[in-house]
Amino acid sequence: MFLCGDRPHKAKPYGYNLRKKAIEAIGQDGMKKIEVSQLFNISRNTINLWLKRQAETNDFQSLPN
Predict the structure, then answer these.
(1) What is the tens place of the pLDDT at every residue in 11-51?
(2) What string of H, E and C letters represents the secondary structure of the chain?
(3) By CB neighbour count within 10 A (0-12 exposed, 13-18 middle, 19+ buried), where does 8 fall?
(4) Which class for 22: exposed (0-12), middle (13-18), buried (19 or more C-beta within 10 A)?
(5) What is the largest CA-CA distance in the chain?
(6) For the chain: N or C, fewer Cβ within 10 A?
């Protein structure tokens, strides 16, 4: 969370296209999470959260604020 004046500001969620490419790289292309995290410059924890959300909801879309 970033402080912007008196109000905290949340970072923008990653776009759906980036999420899709990362998830497809793991599922279809067989890349390892560490490889995908380095390729797309995202954390492994973020990838794990997306995969968890996909398993629970059948999609990896960001949650509404």
Answers:
(1) 778 999 999 999 999 999 899 999 999 999 999 999 999 99
(2) CEEECCEEECCCCCCHHHHHHHHHHHHCCCCCHHHHHHHHCCCHHHHHHHHHHHHHHCCCCCCCC
(3) exposed
(4) buried
(5) 45
(6) C
